[in-house]
Amino acid sequence: MLTLTINGQTNTVDVEDDTPLLWVLRDTVNLTGTKFGCGIAACGACTVHIDGEPIRSCSFPVSDAVGTNITTIEGLGEAKLTAVQEAWIAEQVPQCGYCQSGMIMAASALLRQNPDPSDTEIDEAMTNICRCGSYPRIRKAIHRAAKFKAEA
Amino acid sequence: MKLTRRKFLIAGGLVGGGLAIGYGFSDDTPENASLSATTDAGEYALNAWLKIDTEGNITVAIPQAEMGQGVYTSLSMLVAEELEVDFASVKAEPAPVDPVYANATALMDTLPFSDGHHKGEATVGAWGMRKVSNMLGIQATGGSTSVRNAWEPMQKAGAMARVMLIKAAAERWNVAPGECRAEKGVITHSGTGKSATYGELVEQASKQEVSSDIPLKSENQRTLIGTSQQRLDIPSKVDGTAEFGVDVVLPNMAYAAVKLCPVFGGTVSTWDEAAVKNMPGFIKAVRFETGVAVIADSFWRAKKAVETLPVTFDEGENADLSTDKIFALYEESLKGDDGRSYTDEGDAASEIKASDTVLTARYKAPFLAHACMEPMNCTAQVGDNNVEVWLPNQAPTLASWFAEKTADVPAENVKVNTTFLGGGFGRRIEVDLVVMSVTIAKALKGRPVKLIWTRENDIQHDMYRPAALADFKATLDTSGQTTSWLNRLASPSVTRSFTKRMLPWADSDMPDNTTSEGAADIPYGIPNMLMEHVPTPTPVPIGYWRSVGHSYNAFFTEGFMDELAAAAQKDPLEFRLSHLQGHDDFIGVLTKLLKVSDWGSPLPKGRGRGVALHESFGSIVGQVVEVTVGEDKELSVDKVTCVIDCGTVVNPDTVKAQMESGIIFGLSAALYGEVTIDNGRVVQSNFPDYDMVRLANCPQIDVHLAPSGRPLGGVGEPGTPPIAPAVVNAIFNATNKRERELPLSKLGYKA
Hints:
Chain A is α+β, with helices and mostly antiparallel strands. Chain A contains 5 helices and 5 strands.
């Protein structure tokens, strides 16, 4: 039995230590907003935060998450949308939407560390794959979110 | 409007060389019956597309799959325009599976008698195809047809409901319907000023009989169609609540993972299920023809167990298949003079034979996987006499047929639930996951089983975009005009491969537009033109991949057109313009592109600009690409300027998004996309070796709309075909090096 803190709540889970955090979130805790894309940390669809840092949960053993604060897309905004999510709507970013939880988690972590990233800094931080090609709008939405946050 | 159909079956030659089709329907059901079955208390289905409740909430039933192309929004706009409601009050939900939602346009576009390109669709063949398609009743999303197919029925659905509401109000107030007006969800009587909301009137409205013969608004009366509206599905896609197929959670659900024979057509020969039955969470192992599955209490446990499960395969007759052998077959096909001609005007062969300055080129395109972001999946629950499936799919009718057949239950005991699709691109019109998940769930009757494929399963067991090989010959006159054009193409037939899987008894070697589309119907005025296709089947399963035949034919034809411009020593854009007499719409797109792309402005050394122009799915798209090429073939695609003429625009922002999407999809393929086969198996397995454009190497994209008044065209696919030729043409402009093969990474380019 492992004890995890997910979105501020304590969960006890009965899984093998080497189970990737992704599958514990999805199948054990039923938080399905975090997505499975590749299973090898290549695409970023499974991005969540561990103590505020973005990690790819498909390749992150659950045992390493014990004692940390795990944040998923469901817990990002604490009942209201964040500036990043608002910017995502304003720029009409998602198409199929499957990669967007991971994109939003990656962008949120970036903006926490760097409130006004340049295009190059965005390029370096945002390595997730979107098959629908929402990249140009993601870039605009990150700049817009930075502005929203600065104004708030 | 009440549709009546009788159950019947035909089989046999129909048109165009033996298309055999069977179809059947239930008797005498009103068209809104299946939607009515989904209503909540106080909610009424006024027709097959629209429900209104007594609070005035409006729900539009969307027959098409939402896979990112924005159909929830664009189709709801069609209804809302005529219904006269505030668009903010509209919700969308997936329609049930019912023949009333058949997609006639998709079938018409695929088959060779549609004449869908320059000659319009008013041909007997096209008319017949619409009839057959309506009877066949296949509800499907593909071929960039959603808005084209829904355009009239869904506006009409809104108009008929509006008239029903007006009639209800007139009845209530004892006034003439002509004195009542609908606006923003309220009916008002002009004489007395009395008013009632749609919610107050809906029960009475549901009892009104109306004719479908209601005139629709003309273009200048529309207030919603043509304006950018925020997408209805986006809020749920930023907070994690949107439900995709992989997210389906059902009581007592189990999870399945599979190991499949890596060789096309191979089968399981031995397995040892006892070896894994003590693994954590193990429930059951299932053996089927092409692989084995483990059912467990979580996906991860199922996956671990199936990876451990010892299996041997009989690799069958394709064990030594390779991409090299397939291309050798294609080369053999091109050598002969056999072929099916799709365009034959003048006498290109004689013209070329008589000329001593013939331009020749060979172009090559690889197999490609779809690689939807959401890995393939299907959840199935099999009962004693029923089956229910939940999956992201582009063809619920086909899913229901195959669930019925695999579970061996009566058709009326089959239920298909369509979730959001995490990408589709043609992959999710297939039913392999339905068959596999129902087969597995039969071994655990009564419990829902969620089958998820890994990314490796997905890349290695796709229905691939076919590889293709094309030869070109052409002649120019002294003024630089093209006098003859001969194009021979070798590839398998996508429609035949698909038909073999879906309706094996209908398989026949008949003409297939999806092989020649984008090559036989180029707009350029060339007096002698021959385009031939040599059907070259291979054991590789092939399918519809975003823009289908256009995806390689545009690369071939627009690459070669650029070669002719260079040979004629003409500006590539001006050269195309000089071959477009009589095509004002194509000229319009190119002329606008010339202006907005700043065509002709000087570029620094190492940079180049290329153009491509291509019509597909009823829309014309022109793109200008700017690239930078370094000494060591470092390639940066800097900027794409795109102009589209798709006729009437429903949601302009969606058209722009689909152009961005199609461009990036095609660019990933042009730069990196290649599936190779060795020893009968796919070599690539996941994103590192089947790579994608990411944010860092995504070009700046500017999209401009140029509606010319031509008929409504599609937008989901037409952005994809021009990008590959525009990129290689830009590389030529920058380096003087002509590339005739994709992907560019294989040729040493580092993008």
